[in-house]
Amino acid sequence: MTTMDTNTTNQTSPGQHKARAVTYESSRNAPVAEYKLIDAIRRGEIPEPTIHKEARATDAVIDIDRFNLWYTDTQALFDVAMKVPRGAVTALIGPSGCGKSTLLRSINRMNDLVDGVRVEGSIALNHSPIYAPSVDVIELRKRLGMVFQKPNPFPMSIFENVVYPLRIDGERRKSVLQEACEKSLRAAAIWDEAKDRLKESALGLSGGQQQRLCIARAIVADPEVLLLDEPCSALDPVATLKIEELITEISERYTVLIVTHNMQQAARVSDFTAFMYLGRLVEYGPTAAMFQKPKLIETEHYVSGRFG
Amino acid sequence: MSQLPHIQTSRQSMPGAETGPPGSPSGHRRRRTLPSAIGEPMLWLTGGALTICLGMILLLFAMVLINGSRTFWPQPIHHITLDDGQELLGIRTDHQQATETTEARTLYRVGNRDIGQASFRWINDAAIAAIETPEHAVMLEREAWGIWLGYPEQIIRVDEGGETDVVADGPVAFFDAFRQLHEKARQAMERAERLKRGELGDINHQIGQLETRIDQAEIEAGREGPPLFRFSWLVWGLAGLVVAGLAGSVYRMRDYGTQLGSPHARKGKMIRGSATTIAGMLLVALLVAAPWKADAPTQADVEAMREHAQVREAELLEQYETVLAEIREIEDANSGLRAVVREPTTERFSPTSQTQADEPLQVGQVVRMVRANTLSVPEKFGVYFSRWWEYISTFPREANTEGGVYPVIVGTVLLTMLLTIFVTPLGVIAALYLREYAKQGLVTSMIRIAVNNLAGVPSIVYGVFGLGFFCYTVGSYVDTGPSRDARLGVETWWGLFVFTSMAIIAGIAMKLWSKPDPGKVASRSNMLMQRASWAVWGVCAVLVVVLVAKTPYFHGFFEARAQDGTPTFGTRGLLWASLTLALLTLPVVIVATEEAIAAVPNSMRQGSYGCGASKWQTMRRIVLPGALPGILTGAILAMARGAGEVAPLMLVGAVKLNQDLPVSTQAPYLHADRSFMHLGFHIFDLGFQSPDSQAARPLVWTTTLLFLTLVFMLNLLAIMLRSKIRARMAGPTV
What we know:
The complex is a heterodimer of chains A (308) and B (734). Chain A is α/β, with parallel strands linked by helices and 308 residues long. Chain A contains 13 helices and 11 strands. Chain A has helices at 2-11, 16-21, 36-42, 100-107, 137-142, 158-168, 174-187, 191-194, 207-219, 237-250, 263-269, 287-292, 297-303, and strands at residues 50-51, 60-71, 74-85, 89-93, 117-125, 128-129, 144-147, 225-229, 255-259, 272-277, 280-286. In chain A, helix 7 packs across helix 9. The two termini of chain A are 16 Å apart. Chain B is built from 18 helices and 14 strands. Chain B is of the alpha+beta class and 734 residues long. Chain B has helices at 40-70, 171-221, 233-252, 265-288, 299-335, 377-393, 406-437, 442-454, 459-480, 490-513, 524-549, 559-563, 574-599, 602-610, 615-644, 647-652, 679-688, 693-729, and strands at 78-82, 87-96, 105-109, 120-124, 128-132, 138-142, 147-158, 164-169, 337-342, 351-353, 356-362, 366-370, 396-397, 402-403. In chain B, a hairpin with a 4-residue loop joins strand 1 (78-82) and strand 2. The chains are: A alpha/beta (308), B alpha+beta (734). At the A-B interface, strand 5, strand 6, helix 5, strand 7 and helix 6 of A face helix 14 and helix 15 of B.
C-alpha cells in the first residue's frame, strides 16, 4: 500500500501543494480513533509539519530545506524541512520505515553509495550546501562523524581504530596520534578499559565497548556534527545506559543528531525531538514539550506507545 | 500495513485447524511410516561413496609412497648359474608367474652394459641351476654407462710411465684400500667437474658476450635509412623542466576544487588528470627520442671495440687455459688409481671408458660402491639416504636415468614462484576492479562467466597461445623490436603519439562529465557520454598497442644474438612458461579474490566511508587486509594448479636436459630467458622417452614422490604464511 500511495503521489505531484495547504490543527482535539493527519499521509498527502517555535532556531548547524529522496522509483523522504540547532542533541523518532535513518544518511551523503538514489531540495552544513555538484563528498564526510547501528570496529588494534580518520588524512606523527587517541578514548569514556590493551585487536572488546570505541573514532577528528544511527539497538541495557550517559557528556562539545527507536532514550538524551512518519516530518520541538504536551494527538499517542 | 494500527482485527480461527470431532479417538488417523522414509540405505550409500573416494586417494598416496621410497633401498646381488653353464650377477627386480604361453620368469638387473648386454634380462626360472648371494659381490655406481656388478680383485696404481703397482690384492684388502682412497679421489673429480661447470662456463659466457657486443655495434653502425628524430639536449632539458613544473603544479593543485562548496571539483580533477597525462606522455617522448641515443657507432668505433675486445679475449683465453690445466692436473693425479672389478660372465673387468677396454676403471669414476650382500641394516640406511641426497643434489647422468634431479627441482620451484609472482597481483587487481569499481550489471556478470569458463579451457590451448604469442610475438619483439615492414615513419609515429595523448585527455574529460550531479540519477546524455568514453578508452588502448608495436625507435635488446640464430627471449623459456601458467591460473585467483572481497562485511566499508576515507583508502586499509587470507588461498590454489601443469610446458619451455640452470652467479642471476627442467615433464620423459625404460621405471615413482612432496611443501609454506597473517589480522572473537 505504501508503494501504491507513493506512485499516486508521483503521478499527482501538482496536487501536492493543494494538499499541503490543508491544516490539521483540529486533530489535537479529535476523538481517539481518528488520526486525520496519519490518514492524510497514508493517502499520499504531504501535510505541513507542526514545528514548535523553539525549534525554529536561528543558529542551525544543519539546515534541511524541502528535502525529497527517491530510491529508484520509491520516494522515501517527502519535503522534509527542519533545522538542527547547534550544540544540542536532536533525536529523530518514528516507526520503522519512516525515513529517519535515510535522512541521517543524507546528511553525510552515505546514500550516494546506494545505486539509483535521487534527491531534490537542499541540505546545508554550516551554510554550505552539501548537494552542490562541486562538493567533494570525501571532504564533507571528514566534517561529520558517524556511528552505526551495529558496532563496526575495523579488524585492527584499538589504537589504529581510533586514529583511523587521522591516518587517512596522512597524519604520521606518533605523538599527535597518541594524544588524539587518548583524548578521544577519554571523551568516549572507554580510556580506563582500553588503555592497557591499545595494541590488541578491537574485535576482542564487548559490544558496548566496541560501540564506545566507534564513538571515539567518530569524534577523533573533531567533527562539526555527530550522527548516531540507532547506536544502542544492538546493545544490552547496561551498555545502552553507558552510551546514553556518554551522549549526554559529549553533547557539551558536539552537536549530536541521533536516530532512535526507543522513545525513552529520546526522552532521556535529547534536547529536541522530531517525529517522522512515512517519510514526512510530523512534529518537531523541544523534547520536554514533545513528550509532555505535544501539539498533535498523533505524536502524543506515538510517544506514549498507543500507536505505531 | 493495509490495516490501520488502531483497528484491532479479531483473532480468526485457522482454517482447517479442526480435524474430526474432538474427544473421539477413532477420529485420529494413524500415520504410517513409508519405506522411503527409512534412512539406512542412504546412510550406507553416502558413507560408501565417501569411503571409495578416500580409499582411492589413500591408495594413490600409498602407491606413490611405497614405490617411490623403495627405489634407493639396496637389494642383494645374486650370483646365478644357468643350466647351460653361463654365470652372471644380477639384482632381482620383478617376477612373472607362469601363464599358458610363458613360463615363470624373473627379471634381473644385470647392468654391465660395457660387455654388450642390455642392463635388464628376463631369465626363465626353469633355466636357473643355482642362485647364491656371494659375500664379496659389489655394485658399482659409475659416472658413465650405468651400474657394474662384479667381484673386486685389485686396486692398482698406474704411473705415467705405464708402470703398474698393486696397492691392494684380494677382496678384503680391496675394500680397506677403497674406503681410504675413494673419498679423496671422488672429491677431486667433483672439484674438476665444478671447475668445468663453473669457471670454464663463466669464461665461455664472457667471451660470448664480448662477441655479441661487437656484433651489436656492427649492426648499429650498418643500419640504413635517415637518422631518426632526436631531441637535442637543450630541448630535452627544457621539456624536462616542463615535466617537473607540471608535476609540481599537480602537487600544489592537489587540494584545488576539493573544498566543500567549491565550484571547481570536477574542473580540478580535469586539470590534474590532463596535467598528469601531459607530463607522463612528455616523459615517454623524452625517453624515446633521448639525445644520448643519437650517436650510432661508426665503423671506426667498431674497429676500436674489436681491437679492445681482442685483447680482453686473449686474456680470457689465457685464463681458460689455466683453468683447463688445473682440471687436467686434478684428473691426471687421480687417473692412476684403478679398481679391477671383474664380472663372471665374460671374466672382464669394468673399463675406464668404452674405447679403453683393457684399462680398469678409475677409482674416482665410482660414484658409490655398494657391498649389497654384507650390509647391516644401519649401513643399508646409510646407502639409502646417501642415494636420496645424491638424487636431489646432483645433475642427471645417463639420459636422466642416473644421477640426480637438482636442476629439475630448481626449475620447478622457480617456475612455480615466478608464476605466483605474476598471477597474484594481476588477478587481485582485476578482481578488485570487478568487485569494487565496476558497476554490477550485465557486463560484469558476463565477464565473471567468461573468467570462470577460462578455467575450463584445456591447458594445452594455453601452451599453444604461449608459444605463438609470448615466445614468437612478444619474445621476438623484445629481441629485435618491430620488424622492418611494421615500423611507421617518424612523422606518422609522432603524429599518432600526440593524437593518443589528446585521446587520453578526451577520455578523462568524457568520463568526468559522464557522472551525474550528486543526488541525481544518470541522465540519457550522461549514459551516452559514458558509452562514448568507453569507446575512447578502447581507441586509446589500441593506439598505445600500435605505438609500441610499430615504433621506429626500438630495435630490440638482443638484436645481435637473434641475427646469429640464437634468440634470447624469442624462443621457449622460463619467463614465457611462467607467464603462460599465470594466464592459466588467473581465473583461480580472480574468483578466490572476488569471493574474499565480497566476504568483507559492508559495515566495515560504511564505517570507513563514514570516517571520510576515499574509495581507494577504504580498499587499501580495510578491504584488502580483510580479504588477504582469501587472496592468499587463491594464490595457493593457483600455485598448486600451476605447479602440476605439464602439457603447456612442453610447448613453452620445459626441456629434457638443461646444463645451464636458470639461476646462476652471473648477472642478472635469474636468467628468465633460459629453458628449464620440470618435475612433471621429467616424469613423462623418464617414463616414456627414456632409452632404458626398465632402469627408469623405479625413478618414475621416485620422481613422482618428490614432485608430490615438493608441491605439498610449497603449499604448506603458503598455508603457514596465510595462517600467520590471519592470526595477525583477526581478533580473538572472530
